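Title: Prediction job returns without error message
Component: structure pipeline
Severity: low
Priority: P3
Assignee: unassigned

Description:
Job completed but the reporter wants confirmation the result is attached to the right record. Sequence as submitted:
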Amino acid sequence: MAESVITPALHSALAPAGAHAQHIDSMWQLMLWVCSAMYLLVILFLIAALIRRRRGEGSDGTRGLSRTLAAWTALIAIGLFTLTVASYLTDRALVHAAPEPQVSVLVTAHQWWWNIEYVSGDPSERIRTANELHVPVNAQVHIELASHDVIHSFWLPNLNGKRDLIPGRTSEISLQPQATGVYRGFCAEFCGAQHAKMNFELIVDSPQDFESWREHQLSMGVAPADELARQGQRLFMSTACSLCHAIAGTDAAATTGPDLTHVGSRRMIASGTLPNTDANMRAWIENPQRIKPGSQMPVVSLSPENLDALVAYLRVLQ
């Protein structure tokens, strides 16, 4: 399956790559110029007043002062009115930029990872993954947001603003990405010790690549072909791993931790903390508390040989 490789140089709200982010960026630019002009005028008049004071020049009297104050009041009123109208129009534009969705997703925040479920009326078409969203370019994407534990905040700087996830309530956000690539997402609300390592990626694919990815995600976990990976599968099923994680096509069906059916194909592990390599996978399984202290993943004592086997099994889950 082809992958998107165009990655923005800057993960920032000032580098918009979606319809909603474009509206937010336009509002930001207007506020910047209006406020900068006001600030510049204040500084210029302050400098002028200091120069007049130094030269000993008198004022123009009460009438001149009244005219100056009236002009300033009018200028401030015009600036505030402009920003108010622009804010109203931006809010309307953001609402109208979210018509009938083509892709619907439920994202649930946990300490400290993201559970992602693609919603479908047909249960056999539902996809569960973790920390990695795939959407087609130019598609209308609707994301329902929920929290499993504490307050989190979902933020994709290049594509839209922030949305808080409050326990017991649901919120929503819409996206319309306009360029393929890999976009970094963050939790933008302090949610505990590993808040800084609670990241995710949005991968914007071409329509063909997205459909290939979707069909691949609907498939069962790959059966191991070599003996080392088969040994790893037996270890997975007989240890605490299967009590927290699910792998489609096996007896592992737990939902406490991320779904691992296709974990070998993901770009990152540990919620965007580490690139998905053999060495990083081994380090994460061997001692997750060294990488993310306080994370809910326990340490499972394994010999080096068993650890190699478990990593070999997880790597074949493409």
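Comment from assignee: result matches the submitted record. The first strand starts at residue 103 and ends at 110.
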